[in-house]
Amino acid sequence: MNIQIRDLTTADEPFVYSTMLRSLYYGNSYYNSILQSKFFQMYPIVIRNLIAKSAVRIACLPDEPDVILGYALLEPNIIHFVYVKEAWRKQGVAKALTTDHTAQFVTHITKIGNAIRLNKKLELDPFLI
Question: Kindly report the CA angle at 27 between 94 and 10, in degrees rounded to 5?
Fold first, then answer.
């Protein structure tokens, strides 16, 4: 598959916020036990702090860099979050985003992310945010 990996731009941020919020809230029983209005009001603060301290890698189409396929929030030894659009899953996008990144920990997971975490033998540590 022919994809390009680039850095985050300010134009990408609304997509990152909305997909991360929805993925966490609807894809993890821990987060969806929080009052929905409170989660969507307060959790963007956590995301903003993660973006500020992370390398945010964007997977896009080479000919259309504004078409985001997925993204990863990474720090040395930590994967904070990886998201891939459903149509592009199981095509190597997440692997391309994290292939040169060695991680031992993850801080945010969904049901799908937990299965991948267990397969990769990564430790869940939400306190590394």
Answer: 55
